[in-house]
Amino acid sequence: MGNAESNAYQNHLSRFLPEEQSDIDGLFDTLSGSSGSSGAKNAKAAKKTVTLAALQAHTREPLPEAMTARLYNGMKSIDLPGKSAGLGEQIAKEQFVIFMSNLLKGNADEKISIIMRMIAKTGGPLKGKQIQEFTEDLITSVVHVLSYRKELKGWSLENTRDFSSGVKALASELLSELKLPDGTKPVGSQLLETSFDQSVIEDWVYRVPQVSVFLSVVIRQGLHVLHSLPDQTNDILNLVPHCKGIKGRGVVSLFDIPAIIYINSHLPAEMQHKWQLLFSSRLHGESFSQLCAHIVNKGPCIVIIRDLDGFIFGGFASHSWEVKPQFQGDNRCFLFSVFPTLAVYTYTGYNDHYMYLNHGQQTMPNGLGMGGQHGYFGLWIDSDYGKGHSKAKPRCTTYNSPQLSAKEDFTLDAMEVWAVGDAPESAGKGKKSILDVDPQAQALLEMAGKSRQSEGLREPMEEEEGDDDEN
């Protein structure tokens, strides 16, 4: 190994802590079939190589085959001094370490040439369709490997909606950030046929953090390396929030895994670690009173709705819901759509009509609303449960969101509300249920011959941390 090559290699190696270096060494030894004492290992390291077949054998279950091939092409793309570019079919130790260093520790400039070769073996310029296929493979691989490694933290492919449409929706949302040098953003079929050069794709990787985060997850969890070491950043640790309150209740969430990841990344950092189900129309019944009883004073939460046309959308409320005839919340609130498109719409600064909840008043509208104004909300659920509207044409004044539902006035098919982050003190464990504080509700139940423990009417006591975190 020449001095220049040796120095560059050592610089990359020095980015890793000693225990990380030994983790990478161990993985390379496994992949290259090496064994023996560390002294012999170091002497032979330069001669040992990794083949595509060895990489495929190692990742056959945790990663889709297409992603393994992309990782291999990325490793192979790293040029070493004195070695003809692209001719070697096997991965040398130096290439392996530089690949890890650039993708896990590097900036956009260091990552881009590898990512270009992962998108297409030939490198750039690249068509939008090639970038789309790479992005969909990347998202699919994240969901697949987190499920395989049991790292979905209580979520599963069984208790969430099918993720295939979510993969396409998230890929489409990330690709919408591709920007040509003149500042224009191609859309639809035009985007798929547009050619993008390396500088444009580097700018995209720099501005869209999910690309780097997803690659890091695929490498760490797919190759099973550096996955338990302390250098993991919060965007990886909180990529998927812990799921609470759904286990064993037969509920399939309106969210899919890619949507959970994307919506969670837009929450305030201190709220990204946990979601707890507060209300589900399928568990608690189709009643505005039940909705209010389950969500008031429970801290910040996410409301998600499916209309009868299958459109899925909702909003994040940054404060506890309170029943009152005034707007509430702050500029951290946002609206979002999940299906048929995935997108987040944040505040415009035009007004402060962030969130509204009212019930039982004659002079003011009764219902749950976010954005816009009375009668023209970005999102509205009427107290006459089952009716709602999204009257935002051309755009909601508060959030700049379009019409979220299929029709302006929609009929509700299903609804969920999730508390995010830690519950406020006032909503602590052992809090009385509506059955304790509302004698009328209790009397009605007794008249109907139902016990106070009726499923869905009294919440099960929240499990200890971790109980839901099994797939």
Short description:
With 471 residues, the protein is of the alpha+beta class. The protein is 38% helix and 17% strand.
Largest sheet: 12 strands, mixed
By DSSP, the count of extended strands is: 16
* Strand coverage percent: 15-25%
Radius of gyration: 26 Å
Structural class: alpha+beta
Overall outline: elongated
The overall pLDDT, averaged over residues, is 86
- The residue ranges in which pLDDT falls below 50 over 5 or more consecutive positions are 35-41, 428-437, 449-467
Q: Helical segment tally?
A: 18
Q: Provide the helix percentage.
A: 25-40%
Task: Note the gap between the termini.
Answer: 47 Å
What does this 3D model show about the protein?
The protein has 471 residues and is α+β, with helices and mostly antiparallel strands. The protein is 38% helix and 17% strand. The strands form three sheets. Strands 5, 6, 7, 8, 9, 10, 11, 12, 13, 14, 15 and 16 form a twelve-stranded mixed sheet that branches. It has a two-stranded antiparallel ribbon with strand order 1-2. β14 and β15 form a beta hairpin.
